[in-house]
Sequence to fold (420 residues):
Amino acid sequence: MNLKSDRMFPRFAAYGFLKNLRFFDPFIILIFREAGLSFLQIGLLYSIRDVATNILEIPTGVFADAFGRRKAMVMAFASYLISFVIFYLFASFSLYALAMILFAFGEAFRSGTHKALILEHLKITGREGLKVAYYGRTRSFSQLGSATNALIAASLVFYTGSYRIMFLASMIPYTLDLFNLLSYPKALDGDLERVPFNEIWNQTKKTLRDFGGIFANRPALRGLLNSSVNGGSFKATKDYLQPILEGFALSFVFFPLFMGGNQGGLSDVQRGAVLIGIVYFVIYLFTSYASRSAAKFSQRFTSLGRAINTTFLLGAGLLFLAGFATWANMIFLSILAFLAFYALRSLRRPMDVAYISDQIDSRIMASGLSVEAQFTTILTAIFAPLLGLLADNFGVGIALTALGAGVLGLHLFVRVDETK
Fold:
């Protein structure tokens, strides 16, 4: 696929790269634990974020489709920046909850909207047949950003000895991304009708009517649910790799020798930061490659639907394996299972977007993808506190194993049509 003549691709790639420079991400559970929160409280924070996102998903998707996707993206990044300030300045459950709500505003305005911008660009340039490959390429830059993020975050923790400084540092790439979004052409907003202020409600109702048709479309609804269950289980569990890695760093006999040991003056936080940074860097190199390979991978199956069903089962199996290995104290196997789980999520994400977009009218693409994000946030809001409660009472391993088994059981209800 020749992208040299595509002026928008570098901007799409830059968006994904900068957006994933959330330096706090590889340590978010450790940050909360350091603040004295239980796993249940952490799960509740995730639920607050996701319920707030869920409430805002449809109105923000409608706003994007009816009044401008670029405006929605600018509002998203402004909300993110305010939340980062609160996370940096304060350290309590109640204020973290407020910051999570502001973060949810950003997620709601952003989710589905940038994908709709990309899909509109492909429609304008006559490249709609390249959805999986093109989105996979742009997503690979997002994953490359995550790999870079891991190294920078680990360096920040290692040299400052502080986790919270990363919220302040994250404001730099997010401000740059805000300026990048402001450079997008107006044509990517799609077919917008300019209406007087007193007719805005009529425009909103029109978009909502189109949006409601999604629920009468069985293939689209199955695709949305399949993607959402996979995404919800991933979002609820992915950060549990952090305490697993931290425990591994502190218990591994040879690690202190390789890193200079406590005799060399390294604190527990520094040792954990080094291992977490290295592992997350490797993970996101794999996920970047996986995104680029999404089109080739999907072509190995008789249909896109079969590829989605197969990866759903594989993802649930990897989650179950990661939990069982953690419970059995086979930590290295658990880390490998998480690595594969991350890569698989990145591999199938372009396929999800392509499958869903094939079922939905392009006029309501942002709304349709926001429904998928909404379902994902509902499930994450359910999974996260349940997982935290299980982890507090039975350990992280049992919690992950139970959720993996539950997701496997849901396959019959979310299986998509495999007809080519």
User: Anything to note?
Assistant: The two ends are 23 Å apart (CA to CA). The mean pLDDT is 84. The chain has one domain: 9-414. Residues 9-414 form a domain with the Growth Hormone; Chain: A; fold (CATH 1.20.1250.20).
